[in-house]
Design a protein that fits this description.
64% helix, disordered N terminus, Serine Threonine Protein Phosphatase 5, Tetratricopeptide repeat, elongated, mainly alpha, 502 residues
């Protein structure tokens, strides 16, 4: 154990902690605790700086004043300045100040010592001090505080949760486990709750193999519960260890059985399989889970679909979707759109249309993206009649094709001998979109030229120029050739003069 052995005691109180060098700080910050103790310690990630009173809005003026003293006052003068500040060391002030003093451990200890001269520490303030010292790797002082807490009878499991987290964040996994081993000497029960907190702290640092070693040693003495296995499975998910995940999952089923409430374990296990390119295996397990009424949650389905769709795993994604919907889970609009995109990319328009119809029944109303994905696919596959019918439905629901989709549709309708629908597409775009539709406009003129509808070419070209739509040089060259062949060069020159003067 770094510092003094936690099982030893020299009777010193925290007030007798040796002075701490103000430069003796590390980049470590408080980690998140499990939900049951989220209120016991501040929660910060490793990437965040230490908390500061400057970051807290609506902070009490008295707490702010103390924080500023701790941040600016020279160490030798600190206690006298605090005493003359006129701010009483009320328990609520002490707690708030400690939460904001992780970046100033030396000053925090002096403040804590000063506050204890005239007021009784609360258990929460003691836990905050232990956490502050631990997160700054001041482990000897941390254990001095713990021994005093034992004497004051204010120790709790929350204290050791902090110790586990501090040691693990410092890379001292062995010391964290030793802290668990001496808990009972401090009057704290070594139960499955404590086991789970330690497992969580170890796994959070990417040391799930070490967590498993501790688990294997302790499970004969303390029966693990569903949470124990869920924590390990989440660790394997984070580390992508499929083989270990399968082993842990199998043991979980044997020891604690199937439980519909153990969603996090099922989520983690199945996600590990999918990310490990074992989607087929995940589908098999998923079917077994469905039969046991122990399905994972929407978190898994959303993540798994995202992974499979990015991999264009059409068959597995579709199987996953069918199980999800068949189990009564309602997909979100984002999930519907992602799945429809996959179906369209794989040419399964029947299923894409079915999902479009089902969306409304499930309360997920299609948006512009939904319609444009299907419209793009129909156009790409040159299904002229189907595209015309879908365009009618699309506009009936007041959804506008993208300019690129409109341009592709216009070209396809001209190629498919349906110029009227092509013109209808452009008219709808102009009517409902204030911005110039350059791509679709040029496509319309090219199509009209190829159809020898020169009167329409003149009319639409004039309208496009009136609207400030840019006619491309290639389009103008096409017009020049067509009008010249028809002996109508003057009509072209009129358009050209306006085009050049724009």
């Amino acid at each position: 154990m770094a510092g003094k052995n936690p099982s030893s005691s020299n009777g010193r109180s925290l007030l007798g902690i040796p002075q701490i060098d103000s430069n003796q700080k590390s980049a470590l910050v408080p980690s998140k605790t499990l939900p049951d103790y989220s209120s016991q310690m501040p929660s910060f990630s490793k990437s965040q700086p230490f908390p500061s009173h400057l970051d807290v809005p609506n902070l009490s003026p008295r707490v702010k004043a103390i924080c500023e003293i701790l941040a600016k006052c020279p160490a030798p003068e600190l206690e006298s300045v605090l005493s003359s500040s006129g701010v009483p060391p009320l328990p609520e002030y002490v707690e708030e100040v400690l939460k904001l003093s992780y970046g100033f451990p030396a000053a925090a200890v002096k403040f804590f010592r000063w506050a204890g001269l005239t007021a009784k520490y609360t258990p929460y303030s003691w836990n905050l001090m232990v956490d502050l010292l631990g997160k700054n790797s001041l482990f000897e002082a941390m254990w001095d505080a713990i021994r005093t807490m034992k004497q004051e009878n204010v120790l709790s499991i929350a204290t050791f949760v902090s110790v586990f987290g501090s040691y693990c964040m410092a890379g001292k996994i062995k010391e964290a486990i030793m802290s668990f081993d001496v808990m009972d000497r401090y009057g704290i029960t070594q139960d499955v709750v404590a086991v789970n907190f330690l497992l969580s702290a170890i796994c959070r640092e990417g040391q799930t193999v070490t967590a498993l070693e501790f688990f294997e040693r302790i499970k004969a003495k303390i029966n693990p519960d569903a949470d124990s296995f869920a924590i390990l499975l989440e660790g394997w998910e984070k580390e992508g260890n499929v083989a270990k995940a399968k082993h842990t999952f199998g043991e979980m089923v044997i020891r604690v059985g199937w439980n519909s409430k153990n969603v996090s374990a099922y989520d983690a296990f199945l996600t590990t399989l999918v990310r490990g390119s074992q989607a087929e295996e995940a589908i098999k397990f998923l079917k077994v889970m469905k039969g046991k009424d122990c399905l994972p949650g929407m978190k898994f389905f959303s993540n798994a679909l995202d992974i499979l769709i990015k991999q264009n795993e059409y068959t597995h994604a579709f199987s996953l979707w069918e199980i999800m919907v068949g189990s009564g889970l309602v997909p979100t609009l984002i999930m519907y759109n992602a799945m429809i995109a996959l179906l369209c990319n794989n040419g399964d328009m029947v299923s894409a249309y079915r999902l479009l119809d089902e969306m409304v029944l499930n309360g997920s109303f299609p948006d512009s993206l939904t319609y444009n994905m299907i419209f793009q696919c129909v156009v790409k596959n040159r299904k002229v009649r189907e595209a015309a019918s879908f365009f009618t439905e699309m506009t009936k629901n007041e959804f506008l094709p993208t300019d690129s989709n409109a341009a592709g549709a216009i070209k396809m309708f001209f190629d498919g001998d349906d110029p009227e629908t092509a013109i209808e597409v452009w008219d709808y775009m102009i009517k409902n979109n204030a911005s110039p539709n350059e791509e679709s406009s040029n496509a319309l003129l090219i199509g009209l030229c190829d159809s020898d509808r020169l009167s329409d070419v003149r009319r639409f070209a004039e309208e496009m120029l009136d609207r400030g739509i840019d006619l491309r040089s290639a389009t103008m060259e096409k017009l020049k050739i067509v009008f010249s062949k028809a002996g109508k060069k003057e009509s072209y020159h009129r358009i050209e003069r306006r085009w050049k003067s724009r």
